[in-house]
Design a protein that fits this description.
The chain contains eleven helices and ten strands. It has 268 residues and is α/β, with parallel strands linked by helices. The strands form two sheets. A six-stranded mixed beta sheet has the order 6-7-8-3-9-10, with helices on both faces. It has a four-stranded antiparallel beta sheet with strand order 2-1-4-5, covered by helices on one side. The termini are far apart. The protein binds adenosine-5'-diphosphate and magnesium ion (MG).
């Protein structure tokens, strides 16, 4: 994937149902190469579902997704990662007993397809690649401000650092598109500042475009080129942060009186 251009992700009339619950309804959205696309919306709006449908965790019930011209619909999550899309999870999915460095190294191994067991046992090509991959890990630790924690057990770290370890591991896959699901949730002001710096770095470097799902609307407005707003599974508007900030539909979505919509006060 090295040297390839960041990809265009085209989401076309995507639908996702869980029994009677409509998580996504005809969502159409294009993520252009080189842009940071923010996705906001009240709790339960379908933000995580959108990432899950794009990355193959849940097969969509309608519509399609294409990445750099390749249809993703129907592909396994592993095959979708191989097209250049990496993600982080709203609830961390780190190997808590491994060190930070080992977690990031695991991302490198996964990229090369050696798998966890061979990597852990140091078998065959995994062993031969080990030294080279270790060299890849250090710049990622530096970018994510994690050098000081490299030898700590990932599970023992404060939440904000764990979030950055997840980002480092995702970046170890050398994605051309990175999907971040609430990277700032539950983190400190310092973590938030680090996150802004990292996203701006990725944006400036141009090697990896970013889709940022966040509850922290201010953060999204600060780093995004465009912002999409989901509400009740629908994409109600996509525009620049300046326009979004004053859009009547967005204010209505956030100021709705329903309980599931009442969380905007924490994030505005
Ligand atoms: N695995 C699932 N099973 C059943 N319902 C789900 C599942 N995932 C999400 N949903 C439902 O889909 C809707 C959207 O959820 P989600 O995508 O998590 O929203 P958000 O990330 O915007 O808070 C919610 O009503 C949620 O309860
Ligand atoms: Mg979510």
């Amino acid at each position: 994937m090295k040297g390839s251009l960041p990809g265009e992700l085209v989401i076309d009339r995507l639908g996702l149902r869980f029994g009677g619950v409509v998580a996504l309804r005809e969502v159409s959205l294009t993520h252009h190469p080189d842009e940071v696309l923010g996705i906001i919306g009240p709790n339960g709006a379908g933000k995580t579902s959108l990432i899950n449908a794009v990355t193959g965790i849940y097969p969509p019930s309608a519509g399609s997704v294409r990445y750099r011209g390749t249809p993703l619909t129907g592909l396994s999550p592993e095959s979708i990662v191989a097209t250049g899309i990496a993600r982080t999870f709203q609830h961390n999915q780190l190997c808590g007993d491994l060190t930070v460095r080992e977690n990031v190294l695991l991302g490198c191994h996964l990229r090369l397809g050696y798998g966890v067991v061979k990597a852990a046992l140091g078998i065959g090509p995994a062993r031969r690649a080990e030294r080279r991959l270790r060299g890849e890990v250090e710049p990622l630790l530096e970018l994510l401000n994690l050098e000081h924690a490299a030898d700590e057990r990932a599970g023992s770290l404060p939440y904000g650092l764990q979030k950055r370890v997840e980002m480092a591991r995702a970046l170890a896959l050398r994605p051309t598109t990175l999907l971040l699901d609430e990277p700032a949730a539950g983190t400190s002001d310092a973590d938030r500042a680090a996150l802004v710096r990292i996203i701006k770095h990725l944006r400036g470097e141009g090697s990896c475009s970013v889709v940022l799902i966040e509850h922290d609307v201010g953060l999204v407005m600060e780093v995004s080129d465009r912002v999409a707003v989901l509400d009740w599974g629908e994409c109600i508007v996509v525009d620049t942060p300046e326009v979004i900030a004053t859009d009547a539909r967005v204010l209505a979505a956030y100021l709705g009186v329903d309980d599931t919509h009442a969380d905007v006060s924490e994030s505005a």
